[in-house]
Amino acid sequence: MAADASATDRRRGKSALFVLVCGCAGLGPHWLDPGLRLLPAIAMALFLGGYSIRTVLAPALSGLRPALDCHQLAAGKPPAGHAPAAEGGGAPPPPLPAVDVVVAARDEQAVIGRLVERIAALHYPPQLLRLWVVDDGSSDRTPQVLAELQARHGFLQVLRREPDAGGGKSGALNLALSQLRAPWMLVLDADADLQPDTLERLIPQAEAGGWGAVQLRKAVANPEANWLTRAQAMEMVLDAVVQEGRLMQGGVVELRGNGELLRRASLLSAGGFNEATVTDDLDLSIRLLLDRQLVAISWDPPVREEAVLSLQALWRQRQRWAEGGLQRFFDYAPGLLSPRLGARLKLDLASFFLLQYVLPVMAAADLLGAAITRTLPTIWPLSFVAFGLSGVSIVVGCRRSSEGPPLPAMGPLNLALGILYLGHWFLVIPWTTLRMALLPKRLVWAKTLHLGEDAATA
Predict the structure, then answer these.
(1) Is 209 within 8 Å of 296 (Cβ atoms)?
(2) Which pTM value belongs to this model?
(3) Pairwise CA distance, residues 410 & 141, whole Å
(4) pLDDT at position 58, please?
(5) Residue 84 placed within a domain
């Protein structure tokens, strides 16, 4: 799907409308009677708080095991027409299907060799596994490293794109997709690390559950590098806990780019990867939803990846995530509001759209209104719900058993760090939204720098 300049212009107008509506909602209460100023925020806090807390605590409240790992992806309820494999005798399990592992790599000389060796170590029939690396216009030694690796590993296929090929990561993935024939496609980042038994555990359960896609829980590989990576590790836990709860409540699971297992037929049915977005994973999540393809999340086994080491790198990365997150809602709003989605899915999407994107912009407008009118802020009850939900999710997740790197220990200091760290979204979202509304957009697919072994000690 080629990038469309008119689509970016439409997004600019929608961004401006979004800023206007959220700004009015944040400013408006300051001109109400003092006794009424908190009522809108309290009403929203009660609604969103009740739904969100129930979502976070869904596994415990349901009486099921809290971990939606690859032995319980369907939360005990596979989709209609897809029965799980029988246990304790009976027919032997069906043969394993072929899998294509796909990596879009640009300037990844520090980590690409390590990734190839990790894929070679997977416990999966070699004749059923191929690794496709798309060298996406690298200017470092990535092409030379891949050539050396190809001479040693017959399962490695290398595709190359010119630096000006366009489409970013989505363009690279679409190039690989045109070559694939296996029924399953595992998309990884170049710094990914999988447990050797990941595919042999995950693939049979994904097949039995009838899923169109499964997102592996993302685990930070370098959580103790500094305070920022430890905070990101808690953020990843929070995200997985919330996504599990959303799945069990009949809500939406979102792909996260690294560690996404895709049924090729489902991906093709949804139209492949969108080259007119800066976040291929978030965009694809919505298109799979609208195409009625079921998406699950796996707590264990996880996929490990490097966390960014500096605030500057975090700022760049989160701006891209925020922009892509808003783009998908602007682009697919007609479908999301149509009868194609049931009431439960719409409620789930609306709740987390309000918490993730509307609340930060309203909070910024609320502070502006407080300064203009010299009154107290009015959004704080809703902000209290958002940070409270985050804290509960971090505690619930970090106290669970998990494979992969140890999760941060839960104590007052780590919990406070995790909650305070999440406040950066109250800067990123308003800034990104304002920039999208005011400035002409050039699609720029910025990548995160991967450092390999240096990331563990930096």
Answers:
(1) yes
(2) 0.87
(3) 42
(4) 65
(5) no
Which range among 16-25, 280-289, 311-320, 432-441 shows the weakest confidence by mean pLDDT? 432-441
Which residues are within 8 A (CB) of 17 and not within 5 positions of it... i.e. 6 or more apart?
none
Q: Are 134 and 162 in contact (CB under 8 A)?
A: no
Tell me the C-alpha distance between 382 and 370, whole Å: 16
**Which pLDDT value is given to residue 241?**
92
Query: What is the C-alpha separation between 426 and 457, in angstroms, rounded?
Result: 30
In a domain, 89, yes or no: no
Torsional class of 111: left (φ above 0), alpha (ψ -120 to 50), beta (otherwise) = alpha
Residue 52 covered by a domain = yes
Residue 170 CA to residue 166 CA, distance in Å, equals 9
Per residue in 259-291, pLDDT tens?
999 999 999 999 999 998 989 999 999 999 999
Number of domains in the chain: 1
Residue 230 reports pLDDT greater than 60: yes
| DSSP β-ladder status, 184-188 and 193-194 | unpaired
Share of the chain above pLDDT 90, in %: 74
**Structure-token pair, residue 123:** 């416990």
The CATH number given to whatever domain includes residue 401 is 3.90.550.10
